[in-house]
Structures are given as structure tokens and as C-alpha cells.
Design a protein that fits this description.
heterodimer, A: alpha/beta, Rossmann fold, 2 domains, 7-stranded mixed sheet, about 20% strand, globular, B: alpha/beta, 5-stranded parallel sheet, two-stranded antiparallel ribbon
Amino acid sequence: MVFLTGDLGFMALEPLQKAMGSRFINAGVSEQNMVSVSAALAKQGFDVWAYSIAPFCYARPFEQIRNDITFHDLPVTLVGNGGGFGYGVMGPTHHAIEDYGVLLTLDNMAAFIPTFDEDIEHVVRMAGDRKHPSYLRLGRGEPPANFDVPAYSPWRLLLEGQGPIVVVVGPLAGTFIAPFRELSIDERPTMWALSELPIALHALPERLLSAIAGGAAICVIEEHVAHGSAGGALALYFATNGIPLRRFRHLAARAHVYSRYGSQSFMRKLSGLDPGSAVEAIRSVSAVVT
Amino acid sequence: MHFESGVGHIGGNLSALDALVVTFREYLNEDDVFVLSKGHSAGALYTALWSVGRLSDADLRSFHRDDTLLAGHPPAAGLADIHFATGSLGHGLSLAAGTALGLRLHEKKGRVLCLTSDGEWQEGSTWEALIFALHHRLENLTVLIDENRLQGFGSTAEIASMEGLSGKLRGFDPDFVTIDGHDPAALRGAFARECVGPNIIVMRTVKGHGVSFMENRMEWHYLPLNKETFEKAVGEQNAL
């Protein structure tokens, strides 16, 4: 294994650096070179991990990812820290809200979006076991206090209710558990957390499919722009497979550029990805057809 | 093959051809890796591979045609001697540096040779790769720079004040030498140098080398041969 960083990881990666010795490489502030070097090392048979703040490891070196990694289907895992609005107040250059959409246009690419901190070990092992390119979108797990995190699964049932179905991508799901629990059983959604993309990697849960086929309302929520989103992919999946979507809402990140910046939760609210907006969405999607 | 397939990029192929033939016939061994960063010189690469029996006459005849392995730029798969798809400039040196580092980490004896154009040193990623290769003292890496001083839409001097690439390189303190890129003996001598880090060889070359009406003419970066220019070029070679 070889681990490369684009000169990031102070107060975090030092133990890894010590453990890996010459196979820990600080490639410097040169992400394009880091990605091409990663591809070449993978071609030499190494399991390669390349780390940076999320946009610096997928947006800056996109052509290197496309030409050098994916054209040759090489097992490089790009590790992007601060997925979505993770670097909130740091500003739009540090936001990653089109990351998996862009990357999943490339052959054999998979994106891992762990929902909880407890998922990390599992998804790291899964990405490492792949013989193809992977992207690991790191964020901060935000489950409510005293929440028992269920065992990892690409599709994971987090909450059950008699309201609509809600599918949430990645850590954002944790922020909805407490507010959704407070809803009456009639309004409370059945919430699934989705942690791997593209959706073609895994069969959709039968229970989810049968509920949709039965006319259930569905709301997909993700810290990602609508283009290239999981919501778009799910809608296409249902349409392609003859499953009519009668009631569908999609909450997605709206834009990089705002007039004000703040924490990740502040940025989520500006995009309508906060718990209040989610509750409003599930009420509205439920009300469309009775 | 360029004439038969109606393909251009002849000028930059001819500036690199002498070096590629010497490289493949005399320098590279089985354990070595070659990276053509100036992917638009794929024709010269295929010709060099043909010269050492790695491609056949039939392969060359398929160049740039439907269902060919020999695309206009080196492909990602199908040819064991071509390790990376190239064609977008500024990738090859990083790929070569990563390969050299990988060989070192594996404690393998192979060497890596990368051929870049001079124009592609306008790509920032090429300088990123140079910094990386120098910092890691990649002694198993040789970099050939085809300095023909002409690029896609003018000269390197007119477009980016890049004529005299050596001066730009010098600021990074690499171990480099400048030679006549059409002189096999000079190339052999440059290959044999012992360097602390990568062996960087700036080759002064002539775009369209060997064909009088192509030499140092920017338009032959793009133009294909027609019957008249093809026969004229062949006539010049036969007269030598």
C-alpha cells in the first residue's frame, strides 16, 4: 500500500506517516501530479490512497483521474475530506457538492459515503478490496445521543414510520433521526441511509421497492447538487424499471456561491437541507396525492 | 502510414523519430518502461516499436483506421509496450515519475524513460512532476525533451517566451544536458550519464526533420500529406 497526501493532514496523519515510512508520500501542493503518480503506482501493483480536501482531490485533477486512473481501471482510492459543505465557513472553494456526480461519470468508479463514524473502518476495507477506482467522501457522522448505529450496509434502515419514504445520502441522515422521531407515527418517514454509489452496485432493498411500487411517496435528500445526484439516479432507475413515481421530492444542494457563509449546518440550511426543510418536504410530498 | 491514413502531426513525429528509434533499439530493456508524454507523436512510437519487432507491417497499415489498435494517440489497452494512454499534454512526466518511484519501492531494477514535447512545458503539471522527480531523486528516470521550438499555433518563443527551455529548467537545479536530438552518438552519450536524480536530456531537434519542405514549418504540426507532397518527401529520402 502507498498513501499520498497533497500536503494535508497536520495533527491527523502523523501516526499513519510513522507507520508507513517510505510508503507515506507527501506529494506537496500538486494534486494533478499526485493523482498521476497514484495511477502509476497502482499500475506497478500498489494499493494506492490519495488524500486531500475533497475538491482538491477530484475537481483540480479531474483529467488525471479520468485519463490516468479510470482509463486504465486502476485501484486508486481518492480520499476527499469534508464532503458536501463540510468545510462550511471556509468558503465555496472548499465545498464538494458535485463530487460523486462528476466522478461517477467515469467507468468503474464507486463512491463511498459513510453515514456514521462507525462506518469508516468498513468502507475503508471495502474500498481497499476493490480492484477498481474508488472515491471516499469523508464527512462527520452526526447521530443523536444514545443512538445505536446499525451495522453497516450500503442501504440501511434508520427509522420506521407510516409516513413517506426518505432516502438520505451519507452523514446528513444522522441529522434527521431526532427531528423525524418527534413526528407522529403517521407523519414519521421510513428513512434509509444510502452510503454507496452508483446505485447499480447493489440491489435496492426489496422493502423499498415494494413500497414505491405500492405508491408510497419518496423524498431523496443529499448534500450534492441535483445534476449527477443519487436522487436523479433513483428516479431514472424507477422510470427504467417501470415503477411509477407518483410522489417524489428531491432536496439537493443548491449552489456554491452564496452571499453569506457559515458552518456546515448553516450552509445546509441555506440549501434547504436542514431538518425543518426536510420535515416540510415530507409533509408536502405526502400531501400531493391522497 | 501517415500518408495512407491521411493523418497529420508529421512534423513532431519526425523531430522525435531519431531519438525513439535509438531508445527502443539500443536503450530500453525488458524491465524498462517507456512513456510517450507527447502522445501526438504516436506514429513515431509505433514506428520505433515496429523497428524492434513489436509491431508488424500489418499493424502499421492499420494506423488510424477503423478497428485499429494504433489510435492517433497511444491507447489505454491492447498494446503491452504502451503502459498509459497519453495525448493530453502534461500527464506523461507524472506517470513516468510514479512508475520510477514504484519500481524503487519494489526494489526492481527497471528504468523509466519519458519523452515530452517542449510546448507541453507550458502545462503546470509538468513542472509539478519535475519538482516531484527531483525531490525524490529518481535516478531510474530519464526525461527526453523534444525541443523543436514549434507548437500548435506558432513558435514556443512567440507564444510563451519558452525558447531556451534550458534556462527555465535551470531554476529547478536539475542535472540536464543539451544535445543534438538527431545525433545518435550524442544520445548514447547522454543516456550513459550518471546523475544524482533524473537524467534530463534536452534534445535540440527540427520539426519535420529530414523533409526539406517540412523542416521548421509550423503548419506540419497538423497537415497531412497529399499524393504530391508524399512523393516529394519520398523522393528526397531516396536521393540520400
